[in-house]
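Please check our next protein.
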Amino acid sequence: MEYSSLENRIEVIKLIIQNYLYLVTQNDLDVLKNFDGRIKHHFYDLYQKLTPLEKARFDAGREYDLIEDEEWLKLIKDIKLNSQFKKLPLNKNKLNVLGNKKKQHELHQLETLLNSHRTKKVADFGGGVGNLSVFMAEHLNMEPTVFDYDTDLIRTGQEKIKKNTKKAISFKEFDVCKDNFEDKDFEFGIGLHCCGSFGTELIKLFGENHFVDSMLFSCCYSKMKDEDDYKLSSHAIDFELNTRALSSATLSFNKVELNLYQFRLKIIDYKYSFYHLLGKKHDQYGFFSMSNSRRNLYKLSFYEFYLDSIDKYCSDISPLSKDEVESFFYSNQNRELVEYFTTYYAFSRYIGEAIETYILLDRAIYLKEKGAKVEIIEAFDPEISPRCKGIKASFPH
């Protein structure tokens, strides 16, 4: 398959973002306060005509063509065409690596990707306790040094290395957002799962040509601190992306299992019903950092969920009765609001891919303008590791 240039791709993606940005920039709190101010679009109207099973196929199954609309189908075609990059073949070697399914898969793929860098001195940025560095040392005979700002992780990693490997792995305290990188003897630099502004600063560091080769995998774009984080190249957009738009770039754009999809719907239902009830019945509008990982919490009835959340986040509020809470939860007003948010996020998971593609292209073009040979590669299976695309850069020796 032939791919258009990075510059051509970013111009198409910029136009898509400009035309549809409002569909991924919603302030959820404004909708809770005034439901009449919600986004209205004929895409949403068409989605509401789908059956529950079709909605699951549209969202979880990525069957976008269930919405038979010329504008929608062209939009998805353009996003897909410009968001596809060279795929790394599946590594079938059997390696003895630790971690969950996602981590094991990533390390297997990285063995293929890093194979040409064997024996090189490598700087592992944000390497934490050194899991990636241990892998590179043991399986690729590289000489890694972990650079991380978290001294606790460094100490833990040093102790772990002493107990589990005989390979020489160094650790250095380093904050890429604050410190100048003075080491000149590294041939290769890598950052895996670089959140927010960390990814931006690492790209800038790579752009200063400290390394012959470098590689970056980013995530958590919503943690970017300002617009300079996504305006690096001469092809950067001239408008702003808010936190909600950047969050959409971190959503999964690929198929998910039906049980995960249903769990995701339950989270939306309970969380937004709680926020809605809190505003309408307790006159308190706001959001809390409510973990999605507490699966047992979503096995509770909504009333039990409400009591748990009130106790944890709003202990000064006197809880309502079970009848009042359940009556609100099942009311037409609340059901309509939850259905709206479900719709909003279903479309965000499609359009958000254009936001991530733009960020990757902007960073890649920035490095290219600095003199690097650059490519974006899909290294991981997106259904296992959704933030699967990395930037590879090589500067002249």
In short: The mean pLDDT is 93. The longest strand covers residues 188-195. The first helix runs from residue 6 to 20. Strands lie at 86-87, 121-125, 143-148, 170-173, 188-195, 213-219, 373-378, 389-394.
